[in-house]
Amino acid sequence: MQKNNWYILYALPAVILVTALIALPTIFTVLFSFTEWQRFNITGFGTLRHYARALKDLTLGKAFVHNFLYILFTIFLEVGAGLILAGLVNHLKHSIVYRGLFFSPLILPSIVVGVLWRQIYAAEGGLLNTIIIALGGKAVSWLDQPYTMISVSIVSGWLFAGYFMTIFYSGLSRISRSVIESAIIDGATPFQVYTKIELPLIKNLIMLSLLIVTTGGFKGFDLFQIMLRRDPMESGIVLPTLLVRIFFENQDIGYGSAISMILTAVVVLIMVIISLINKAVGEVEEY
Amino acid sequence: MKKVYFLTLVSLLVFLGVSVYGGGKQEGKGTVLRVASSSEGPEHIAIYDKMIADFEAKHPGVTVTWDRSSGDDYQFQGLPSLLQSSTPPDIYSEWAGNRVKNHYLDHEAMDLSSLADRLRPIIDDSAWSGAVFDGKTYMIPTSQDVTIMMWYNVDIFNKLNLKVPKTWTEFLTVCAKIKEAGMTPILMGNSDAWIAGNFVGLFLYRWAGEQKTIDILSLKPGTKFTDPDFVKAMQFAYDLGKLGYINKDLNTLEYEPSFARLFDGSAVMYPLGTWFKTEIIQGIAPDPEKANFDFFNLPAMEGGKGDQSSYMGVNAGFMMNAKTKHRALAEEFLTMMVAPEYRKEFAKVGDFPSVKDTLDPSDSYAMKVKAMMNQTKTVVAPPDTGYNLEMSTALYQAMAKVLVNEMTPEAALAEVETKISHLRQ
Fold it and tell me: Which of residues 72-111 of B touch A (CB under 8 A)?
């Protein structure tokens, strides 16, 4: 028994790291959200004022709506596109070339991606509008309302579709050829093979991807910050950019902490819902 | 054999000890004086580099490092992060007013009163405004900027036979003629919100009057942003948008890329500060020699309650970190920063130094700006440097929405009131 206690020491580094990097900051954030601040000085404790303010905050409401829109769009533009690309690539010769091509945007730094797409979307002289005008159309202010969220989501899709394609491709390539060949002998078209056999068999990966995209959607910051700058119209304000403004610009620690807690609660709730859906649908056995 | 092991171990420990001690000694060998500021043009940096070289030559073993980031990044993320970092700046640039006050409230500002007393004889009295709180001085002013002047393309004005407008009505006529000629009368790259914020901010002072505007922006009890004078002042901005006198994409157009349209002649006027001459023309114009631009102060708004010759300006300078370990060195560096010989160099590249008698009388541009400054005693502060930052963010958003007619002045100002209601508590 004495000998077994040594094993606690092996766990200690992990325990210390988790406590220092996750548990303590979380506890502090909870406490700060109930604290009255005068800039960086604590002036009281036990207030619910920050939470009450959050209920009436127009910008916070807008940021939540934008975040949900972003998640909705990226489900299609990242996971959906990733599924389609994986399905196509899986049946192509030299698929490694295509996989490399679709994955390549992800190796670019987000600052480069943001600046590049700003130029593409620029209302005057931007690549997209130049093409539209050349085809006889009218220039559109792509980063302005009502296009802001879909424009940024398209960039996100361009960036991450290849990532999800890689995940799905790894699942598709593990499906036994005999299953596919049996279906083809039975008269299934390639589309039927994809939708009726392949997709159901990688359902676990799809659910995992949905979880990644949904929770990751609440962390989207860099593209919004680079492409929209200070976004005076708030047409693309999302929770992370709002939090940066509250913590760094307004230096409002109490309110920022309260919003962080609300955000955490929402993300946890979404994770629970996805897990319940996953459970209800039933997991696919490893093949 | 054991002896060999023992000696090897001792040698290793001694070696490690010497290495560690030596390393530590290396770190402490030279003193590093850290400076942080918002980025400036290459000509400014060259003068600072010369100043640093002179300072380092005078203090062997002292190294001056300078951390620069672009204006907005510096204000909102760069400086706050640096001040909380393990290598905070000993000296940092700031804009007078509320920003200096916040550093003072956060115990990040060193009391520089004694240094200020020594420097007072060489610095303009007006430059200290916004640097003093509770009777103590926290910033040494180095320059005085006008943040909004209407810069215009002289060649296009001449071609269209336009004269510099003196009144708002004349200004609208000028805009109409430019629009008729197929160009954008007023251009703004407002994706960072402050350009339109400063421009329309001046409308508020001019129309509602200085004291009323200061009271409302300071959130004085009993005041409201929906005050009829504020609504009317914002109506001027709404009308500029409605008449098509401002580029429609102003809120998504970035600051630096926006100037391309000014230099290619598709837009004619740009509301910007004194730095347009050096940073924009010298730094961005494809052919600075051919860029023929001049400026005028915002025309008088007939019927306005404020001083119609007022201008929007801000004092800029340097503060000392309250936690600096090199106070004496930092004081000496700050003194060097306002030394007339260096400030004269800055004046040559377009600065308006806080230091007396540093402007070159033969510099017609400098003299014209100085004349504009001397024409009025009313200098008003931009909402984002003189007042609460959260308030100014909400106000600037309202202005951005009004300029593109996304909201009426009444609705936009009501939204400001809702957004800042917690500040009133």
Answer: 72, 76-77, 80-81, 102, 105-106
In 3D space, the residue among A25, B336, B72 whose CA is nearest the CA of residue B345 turns out to be: B336
Surface of B (177-206) touching A: CB under 8 A = 190-193, 196
Q: Which amino acid is at B285?
A: A
Nearest to B76 among A56, A141, A249 (CB): A249
CA-based nearest distance B383→chain A, Å: 14
Q: Does the beta-carbon distance from A58 to B80 stay under 8 Å?
A: no
CA separation, residue B343 to residues A109, B27, B39, B349, B350 (Å): 40, 34, 17, 10, 11
Mark out chain A residues that contact chain B at CB-CB < 8 A.
38-40, 53, 56-59, 118, 122-125, 141, 143-145, 228-234, 244-245, 248-252
Determine whether the interchain pair A248/B77 forms a contact, defined as Cβ–Cβ distance below 8 Å.
yes
Cβ of B251 and A233 within 8 Å? yes
- Contact in structure between B17 and B295 (CB atoms under 8 Å): no
> Residue B69: in which H helix or E strand, if any?
strand B62-69
Q: Which residue of A has its CA nearest to B101?
A: A39
- B394 and B162 Cβ atoms separated by less than 8 Å: no
Taking each helix axis as running N to C, give the angle between helix A49-56 and helix A253-281, from 0 to 180 degrees, rounded to the nearest 10: 70
Closest partner residue to B106 among A39, A57, A249, by Cβ? Answer: A39
Residue B185, preceding peptide bond in cis (omega within 30° of 0): no
Kindly list the residues from chain B whose CB atom is less than 8 angstroms away from the CB atom of residue A40: 106
- pLDDT in tens for each of the 425 residues of chain B? 455 454 455 554 444 444 444 443 333 358 999 999 988 878 889 999 999 999 999 999 999 999 998 777 888 778 988 998 999 999 999 999 888 988 998 899 999 999 999 999 999 988 898 899 999 999 999 999 899 999 999 999 999 999 999 999 999 999 999 999 999 999 999 999 999 999 999 999 999 999 999 999 999 999 999 999 999 999 999 999 999 999 999 999 999 899 999 999 999 999 999 989 878 887 889 999 899 999 999 999 999 999 999 999 999 999 999 999 999 999 999 999 999 999 999 998 888 999 999 999 999 999 999 888 888 778 899 998 878 889 999 999 999 999 999 999 999 999 999 999 999 98
> Where would I find the beta strands (DSSP E) of chain A?
35-38, 41-45
Which residues of chain A have a CB within 8 Å of the CB of B77?
Answer: 244, 248
Question: B253 to chain A: which residues are within 8 Å by CB?
Answer: 122-124
B91, β-bridge pairs: B35, B320
Which domains does chain A possess? 57-251 (1.10.3720.10)
> What distance in Å separates the CA atoms of residue B269 and residue B419, rounded to the nearest whole number?
32
Q: Could you tell me the pTM of the whole model? A: 0.84
Nearest to A78 by CA among A116, A106, A110: A106
Q: Is A105 left (phi over 0), alpha (psi -120 to 50) or beta?
A: alpha
Size of interface A-B (CB pairs under 8 A): 80
Nearest-CA neighbor of A169 among A96, A235, A222? Answer: A96
> For residue B196, which residues of chain A lie inside 8 Å, CB to CB?
232
- Token pair, residue B86, equals 């393990």
| Token representation of residue A14 | 């992990």
Give the separation between CA B16 and CA A166, rounded to whole angstroms.
48
Distance CA B97, CA B145 (A): 13
Q: What is this model's ipTM?
A: 0.86
B130: left (phi over 0), alpha (psi -120 to 50) or beta: left
Phi, psi of A4 (to 5 degrees): -60, -30
As a whole number of angstroms, the distance between CA A103 and CA A100 comes to 5
